[in-house]
Automatic annotation (TrEMBL):
It comes from the Archaea. SUPFAM superfamilies: P-loop containing nucleoside triphosphate hydrolases (SSF52540). This is Helicase. GO terms for molecular function: ATP binding; DNA binding; DNA helicase activity; hydrolase activity, acting on acid anhydrides, in phosphorus-containing anhydrides. SMART domains: HELICc2 (SM00491). It comes from Haloarcula sebkhae.
Length: 575
């Protein structure tokens, strides 16, 4: 790596905000010999441009000896972030490659068939005469030979150990704050009717401990292997059978890796098992602190690493979570350039939103939202509902209060389409969202205000969360919630001249700020220090609808939306 050329690799014609200083600090960290640099850069810092500059420091073929690796990877967990990179003219030399299911076969009669279900994977000994023109294999070949290959984190991890995408000189991970949690999710093993077609043929035991889980996985793997052999004996498979074969092969690999890791006395991974207390219940095997998994899928893939995010809140805790030595890691802080008065936080807390208090608190929150709607009569709003149960209750309450005509919702299957329709609309509609605290750009009149209905603490019924709290890891618990809150606050203020208000409706959010104060970035602490109670209009549903009744419409000044298929749980960070 050649850190000295980092400014020459900057792709924009000029700097904005703190980009020039950030590049200088990143260069200095690498030149001090650090192999990993964490870049804590808030919304609007131009992280993608910083990422491109860092990737450009990788050795090229003309600069390397025969035994040295070259070039760079850019990767992000978020499909929407990769889409933005692909559309940015300043980043045109980042060569994007996606998974097979994103490409259509070009053979006659197969043009609506994704490549992962094309004849080459359906038919035994199929010889494709146009493989050199296949959109997937063509993009893969191009990306494997380009200076900077860009891909989602899921694809990056899945290609670990491949001959096509081997080790490179530099790896840049954008939106890296949840790297440990993403690794845990990718390494989680789900044993259920959804993942095992022959589930009804399995006598599922009551799992009491990991030793019993290991024995059960051996039996499942044997059945999966037998089913795969049956499928391989067929001359041609249907698309459903291809998906079944690939899913079972992945499951077999995961089960083998789990047993190998569990029996390795030197592995740092702790495994936990979840099973509902009912007959024939599915089994979920989850890793904690998957250092070994990350070593293989991430840390062995490059010489130097840059990890960028607005919410890497604690260097030591982050390093412990992902298996890094803090002494080999530098943290570069990028200052916020958005005026703090443009991103106000308002205290409209109505009580606790924990499960036992929700039924009492939510009606008061709904009434408060009506008053907020009246304050923003002709401006779009976003409500972070945290869960579909809260979304459903809140929608019913708002309908009862008579403001339903201004309210939109979404379900799990139609989230992307509903979001796109709301963004395109010229009406000042209010969108009740679930799990949209990240990867959502609502610049300008796309949204001027938002409400956080509930403190986003991790679910204590999750075995990994419960295990961490048993180990007294309360700092992790509060940091995780704070990270989500900070991400959510960045959805509606996207540029120095942009502005948007965030209303906090759960009193537990105020408690969270006290408990996690020492982990707050300075720029977010400045927002919290200015926290105030707004002067809201009286409860008047007719006033909240006044812009609709008068026919007033506001045209937003910017809209960037796309609709994905959203079928796969890893298709986007929202899922």
């Amino acid at each position: 790596m050649y850190p000295a050329r980092i400014t020459d690799e900057f792709p924009a014609p000029s700097y904005r905000g703190n980009q020039k200083q950030a590049l200088a600090d990143i260069r200095a960290a690498f030149e001090r010999g650090k192999d990993v640099v964490l870049v804590r850069a808030p919304t609007g810092s131009g992280k993608s441009l910083l990422a491109r500059s860092i990737a450009g420091c990788a050795r090229t073929a003309g600069e390397a000896a025969a035994e040295q690796v070259i070039d760079a990877y850019y990767t992000t967990p978020q499909v929407s972030q990769l889409d933005d990179v692909a559309e940015d003219a300043l980043l045109e030399d980042l060569c994007v490659i996606r998974g097979k299911n994103n490409y259509d076969c070009i053979l006659p009669g197969e043009t609506d068939t994704p490549v992962n279900q094309a004849p080459c994977v359906r038919e035994r000994k199929f010889d494709c005469q146009v493989k050199h023109r296949c959109p997937y294999f063509s993009d893969r070949a191009i990306a494997s030979n380009r200076r900077i290959a860009a891909m989602t984190l899921a694809y990056f991890m899945q290609t670990a150990g491949s001959d096509v995408f081997g080790k490179r000189d530099v790896v840049v991970i954008d939106e890296a704050h949840g790297l440990g949690e993403w690794a845990e999710m990718y390494a989680t093993i789900d044993l259920s009717p959804q993942s095992i077609p022959m589930w009804n043929d399995i006598d599922v035991p009551d799992i009491d401990g990991l030793d019993e889980a290991v024995a059960f996985t051996e039996r499942v793997e044997h059945l999966a292997e037998r089913r795969v052999k049956e499928l391989r004996q067929k001359a041609e498979l249907t698309g459903e059978e291809v998906a079944e074969r690939d899913s079972l092969n992945t499951l077999r690999q995961d089960l083998g890796w789990f047993r190998e890791d569990y029996t390795d006395t030197e592995s740092a991974t702790t495994w936990v098992v979840d099973q509902a207390d009912s007959e024939h219940a599915p089994v979920t095997i989850k890793p904690m602190n998957p250092e070994r998994y990350l070593k293989h899928t991430v840390w062995d893939r490059g010489n130097r690493f840059a990890l960028l995010s607005a919410t890497i809140l604690n260097k030591e805790a982050f390093c412990a979570n992902v298996g890094l030595d803090p002494s080999n890691v530098a943290l570069v802080e990028v200052g916020h350039t958005f005026p703090v008065e443009n991103r106000p936080l308002y205290d409209v807390a109505q009580g606790k939103m924990t499960y036992e208090h929700r039924d009492d608190t939510l009606p008061d929150i709904a009434r408060t939202i009506v008053r907020i709607m009246a304050r923003h009569t002709d401006e779009k709003g976003l409500i972070h509902c945290h869960s579909y149960a809260i979304q459903e209750q809140l929608k019913e309450l708002l309908d009862d209060f008579g403001v339903g005509a201004r309210v939109r919702t979404h379900d799990k299957e139609g989230r992307d389409g509903a979001l796109s329709a709301w963004k395109r609309s010229d009406n000042p509609d209010v969108f009740l969202s679930v799990k949209m605290e990240e990867a959502l750009d609502l610049e300008g009149d796309l949204c001027r205000w938002q409400v956080l209905c509930k403190a986003p603490y991790p679910n204590t019924r999750d075995s990994r969360v419960a295990r961490r709290l048993e180990d007294d890891q309360w700092g992790w618990y509060y940091r995780t919630a704070l990270r989500t809150v900070i991400q959510a606050c960045g959805r509606v203020v996207r540029a120095p001249d942009d502005y948007g208000a965030t209303y906090l409706a759960d009193s537990s959010l105020l408690d969270l700020f006290d408990r996690a104060e020492h982990d707050m970035p300075d720029w977010f602490r400045a927002q919290v220090d200015r926290l105030s109670q707004p002067d809201l209009p009286r409860f008047a549903p007719d006033q909240a609808l006044s812009a609709l009744s008068s026919g007033t419409k506001r045209r937003h000044d910017r809209s960037r939306s796309r609709s994905g298929n959203g079928n796969h749980p890893l298709s986007d960070v929202w899922d």
